[in-house]
Amino acid sequence: MAFFDLVDFDDHEQVVFCSDEESGLQAIIAVHNTNLGPAAGGCRFWDYEQDELALVDALRLSKGMTYKNAMAGLKLGGGKAVIVGNPKKLKSEALFKAFGKAVNNLNGRYFTAEDVNITTADMAIVNQETEFVSGLEGKSGNPGPFTALGTFLGIKAAVKHKMSLDSLEGITVAVQGLGSVGYALCERLYEAGAKLVVTDINESILDKAATELNAKVVSLDDIYHQDADVFSPCALGASINDDTIKQLKAVIVAGCANNQLAESRHDKILHDKGILYAPDYVINAGGIINVALEIYPEPYDAEKATSLVNNIYNTLTSVFENSSREQRPTGEIADEMARKIIGK
């Protein structure tokens, strides 16, 4: 593989491959940019079909964290870690301690936290080997509820801009993925009067959504062409691609998943079709905002975290307004805004 020629290798400052034979750890830590401060981003545990896919995921996610932290006004750069393998089979105290040692070897250039298939309990084990970890119980804790809040506010901002509505009452949202963040988002949407169409690989969580949130349950493939106002990707990335864009009936794409666009060109395709896209790293920044306050030297303050997350509404409104005024895709606008902040 021509590593430096990869599309997603965006002048990354550092990429570290970590392994520990005894525990079975195989991980990649990618530090994209530290202009604004130490790199910060979660660690995900995923059973990738190929090692190359794990590398590309780490590169894309770490770059996204650079832009996310910049647009959220945080004094942090972007980084991300992926642990390769089946978490149901490989999770162990020894593995997370080995990962903690790998993080510690970076001497504070990267702060890790929870992401897909990683819990606060897992991070507590990592913390035994390194201080460069956040999202710990008793401090900022689980970032998921803050990610859900920011995404909910982002959907409100998108509905206001695209549909000139101040309320979500009666709005239909098709939510793809009911993990801890996706389900928390659905709860907020339901409380706001939105109608829900949902899908997930977990049948029990779908039953729960149908019972508790009066959600309509559809298959994984059918979620794209629902008669919805908003399509909300809340699972893994690349759900917006050539095939799925053709199916969308929604006029808004706004969800909490990372790397929602399979390729950057899909930003323009959505724009040309009149679909308002809430750039993923802007709308889903609530979790890292909460975690960042644990990294900062001052004591963690949940009220301050909530106040900063509330500002996601204003940031997205600015992106939407600039896009409308300049007649350019929202992702392109957000990227330019982020690069200016990073450059400073």
Report on this model:
The structure is a single chain. With 344 residues, this protein is of the alpha/beta class. It folds into two domains: 11-61 and 77-126, Rossmann fold (3-Layer(aba) Sandwich); 144-284 and 313-343, NAD(P)-binding Rossmann-like Domain (Rossmann fold, 3-Layer(aba) Sandwich), CATH 3.40.50. It is 44% helix and 15% strand. It is built from 14 helices and twelve strands. Strands 1, 2, 3, 4, 5 and 6 form a six-stranded mixed beta sheet that branches. The chain has a six-stranded parallel beta sheet with strand order 9-8-7-10-11-12, with helices on both faces. Strand 7, helix 6 and strand 8 (195-199) form a beta-alpha-beta unit. The longest helix has 21 residues, at 51-71. It is globular, with a radius of gyration of 19 Å. The model has no long low-confidence stretch (mean pLDDT 95).
Outline of this structure?
The chain is an alpha/beta fold and 344 residues long. The chain is built from 14 helices and twelve strands.
Order of helices and strands: EEEEHEHHEHHEHEHEEHEHEHHHHH
What share of residues is helical? 40-55%
Fraction in beta strands: 15-25%
What is the total number of structural domains? 2
The total strand number stands at 12
CATH superfamily assignment of the largest domain? NAD(P)-binding Rossmann-like Domain
Given helix and strand content, the structural type is alpha/beta
Q: What's the alpha carbon Rg, rounded to whole Å?
A: 19 Å
- Helical stretch tally: 14
Can you summarize the main beta sheet? 6 strands, mixed
Q: What average pLDDT do the residues reach?
A: 95
CATH top level of the largest domain?
Alpha Beta
CATH fold label of the largest domain: Rossmann fold
Low-confidence stretches: none
Straight-line N-to-C gap? 34 Å
Which of globular, elongated, flat, extended, rod-shaped describes the shape?
Answer: globular
CATH architecture label of the largest domain:
3-Layer(aba) Sandwich
